[in-house]
Design brief:
Elements: E1 16-20, H1 28-35, E2 41-45, E3 58-63, H2 66-76, E4 80-81, E5 84-85, E6 87-89, E7 103-108, H3 116-123, E8 135-138, E9 145-153, H4 156-166, E10 170-171, E11 174-175, E12 177-180, H5 195-208
Antiparallel strand pairs: 1-3, 1-6, 2-3, 4-5, 7-9, 7-12, 8-9, 10-11
GO biological process, one term: positive regulation of mRNA splicing, via spliceosome
Organism: Guillardia theta (strain CCMP2712)
Main location: nucleus
Length: about 210
């Protein structure tokens, strides 16, 4: 039976997962029913504004054991709920540290059926994916894929391996293009991953740790 609490001081942090990128329509009941498919759920909590009662796009799901939580992340990360891919993380504090060092990749020539979950399952093999990625770019009106996406890693080594292994490889029957994305900071024509930029990004990441 579904139960929820706004204050769970005895929550088992090791068995609790962070669920991000949920829509306004998402409720504790919906998360409960969804993650019950992965394992025995003990508690669901979606923090809300005390005045507006609107949530900030994330919640927490506590399972019976740490193994159940890890299994849920493995099989349900990036599945879509209300059209958006859920982003799951074992850290239960709600303060998910994202280190953007500039190891950002552009994935092109994608088949329309390629979604965020398939990209995550494919590219997470090379390292830790950070930020709001993988992200498939879609037409805002139709929701159809534009044929390209972005993946950000926490280090250049992972991005380099992904490029070496996946550039030109077939995904859903079509050879994909994998390369560093163009920078958005006004550097015209400059891509992420340039060697002189890497040290700067790594130093910034160390300062945040």
């Amino acid at each position: 039976m579904y139960t929820s609490s706004q204050h769970v001081p005895e929550r088992n942090q090791d068995a609790t997962i962070y669920v991000g990128n949920i829509t306004e329509k998402c409720t504790e009941e919906i998360l409960w029913e969804l993650f019950l498919q992965a394992g025995p759920v003990v508690n669901v909590h979606i923090p809300r504004d005390k005045v507006t009662t609107v949530h900030s796009g994330f919640g927490f799901v506590e399972f019976r054991s740490e193994e159940d939580a890890e299994y849920a992340i493995k099989i349900m990360n990036m599945i879509k709920l209300h059209g958006q891919p859920l982003r799951l993380n074992k850290k239960a504090s709600g303060e998910i540290k994202v280190l953007d060092v500039g190891a950002n990749l552009f994935i092109g020539n994608l088949e329309p059926e390629v979604d965020e979950k398939l990209l995550y399952d494919t590219f997470s093999a090379f390292g830790v994916i950070v930020g709001n990625t993988p992200k498939c770019m879609r037409d805002p009106e139709t929701g159809q894929s534009k044929g390209f996406a972005f993946v950000n890693y926490d280090c250049f080594e992972a991005a380099d391996m992904a490029i070496e292994a996946m550039n030109g490889q077939y995904l859903c029957g079509r050879p994909i293009s994998v390369q560093y994305a163009y920078k958005k900071d006004g550097s015209k024509g400059e891509r992420h991953g340039r060697w002189e930029r890497r040290k700067m990004g790594e130093e910034k990441a160390e300062e945040r740790c």
